[in-house]
Design a protein that fits this description.
It is built from 15 helices and 13 strands. By secondary structure, it is an alpha/beta fold. The chain folds into two domains: 236 residues, Spore Coat Polysaccharide Biosynthesis Protein SpsA, Chain A (Alpha-Beta Complex); 137 residues, no CATH class. The strands form three sheets. The protein has a seven-stranded mixed β-sheet with strand order 5-3-2-6-11-8-12, sandwiched between helices. It has a four-stranded mixed β-sheet with strand order 7-13-9-10. Strands 1-4 form a two-stranded parallel sheet. The chain starts with a strand and ends with a helix.
Length: 379
């Protein structure tokens, strides 16, 4: 890693020129991850940033060697920390990096993803204009061959054109399940929240759920340079099929937590509607019929029941197609093939069954399909 001879950063930097404005944490779990690409993209800004790469069960020297080609501007820095905690959970390395942060703002990033040039500058500029404690990044897929920007990821489906003063319910923030963007470190500390230790998936959902409904000011950088999701890492653990009890443990932890039951009813309903659509129904899309034995069916039914118990009536805004899936999930006597066929049918968007709820009085509800889809198109 070598410094550049580039000009100094603008006045976004710290007054003494030594403390970074942002501590950005990247967790790397194998020596094969393209972490140099991620680090280089994070440094492609004029904001003083300290990139902390946490080598998780990886020899730090291998990560250092991977980073040798990265050019570090004189106003920024890169460091490598090591962690061996005996788990495959990303929570440990992210928490280690967050605990080592001293800058006013923090950010996290996947080792196989990257930032579009100037993304971090855009987040900081928006924060300074608005005083936000959280700046939600615009998400997009990387372009063909990993270059440029591809299709936008339409989350969160916030109110059209809304970029400041976002509300967890009114702007459907729960559909953004990862804390991607800028977060005021003091806000994380005030909430006493970190990534959930031990979980291989969903370890970040409690973080964002607590943030979205914390009352902290939130802004959305909906037109700035994007956080780019890369799909070229074959060992990404998010995509591994697991038993339902493991895959959805984070859902149970959240909906059964005391802090969650302290939320207002409308807040719990917003979170639980999203959990049904994205997480409960999501496990039907990548598992074959042979997976669904009695144990797995019972596990899925138990999670769905817990979500419904945490926010009674949250299912009323779901489409008719979604309600049919939900009925099949909670009734384990429904044949597996029928449940999976209903799961496929709910993804055939545009049909009347996917557009309207059973109770037509809920057709214009904020979480009902028509308004949700319209907001998603406008992200």
């Amino acid at each position: 890693m070598s410094p550049t001879g580039s000009s100094s950063p603008d006045d976004a930097g710290a007054a003494d020129g030594t403390e970074p404005v942002v501590d950005l944490v990247i967790a790397v779990h194998t020596a094969q991850r393209p972490v140099a690409r991620a680090v280089a993209s994070a440094l492609d800004c004029r904001t003083p940033v300290r990139v902390t790469v946490v080598a998780h069960h990886v020899e730090p020297a291998l990560v250092q060697a991977n980073l040798e080609s990265v050019v570090v501007p004189p106003w920024s820095s890169v460091r490598v920390l090591a962690l061996s905690d005996g788990t495959r959970s990303p929570a440990g390395p992210f928490n280690l990096g967050l605990d080592a942060a001293t800058a006013r703002f923090v950010a996290v990033m996947g080792s196989d993803d990257r930032l579009a040039p100037g993304a971090l500058d855009s987040w900081v500029a928006l924060q300074r204009r608005t005083g936000a404690a959280v700046v939600v990044a615009r998400l997009a897929h990387a372009g063909a061959g990993g270059a440029g920007t591809g299709a936008v990821v339409p989350t969160p489906p916030a109110r059209p054109f809304r970029s400041t003063g976002l509300d967890g319910v009114r702007d459907r923030l729960s559909y953004r399940s990862a804390p991607l963007g800028l977060i005021e470190r003091a806000t994380l500390d005030r909430l006493a929240v970190r990534f959930t230790p031990g979980l291989e998936v969903g370890e970040d959902v409690e973080v964002v759920t607590r943030l979205w409904f914390s009352g902290a000011p939130i802004a959305f950088d909906r037109r700035g340079p994007a956080y780019l999701v890369q799909d070229d890492a074959g060992d990404r653990i998010t995509y591994v099929s697991r038993p339902v009890a493991d895959e959805l443990e984070f859902v149970l932890r959240i909906v059964q937590a005391d802090w969650f039951h302290g939320f207002a009813a409308r807040q719990r309903a917003a979170v639980c509607t999203k959990m049904l659509r994205i997480h409960v129904f999501g496990v039907l899309g990548n598992r074959e019929a042979e997976f669904w034995d009695g144990v797995e069916r019972a596990s899925l039914a138990r999670v769905a029941a817990a979500v419904l118990d945490a926010a009674p009536g949250c299912e009323a805004v779901l489409s008719r197609a979604d309600r049919a899936v939900l009925d099949a999930v909670v009734d384990v006597s429904v044949p597996v093939d029928e449940m999976l066929a209903l799961g496929r049918a709910r993804r055939r968007h545009g049909r009347p069954a996917t557009l309207v709820p059973r109770d037509l009085r809920r057709i214009a509800a904020r979480e009902a399909p028509l308004r949700l889809m319209a907001a998603s198109v406008l992200v």
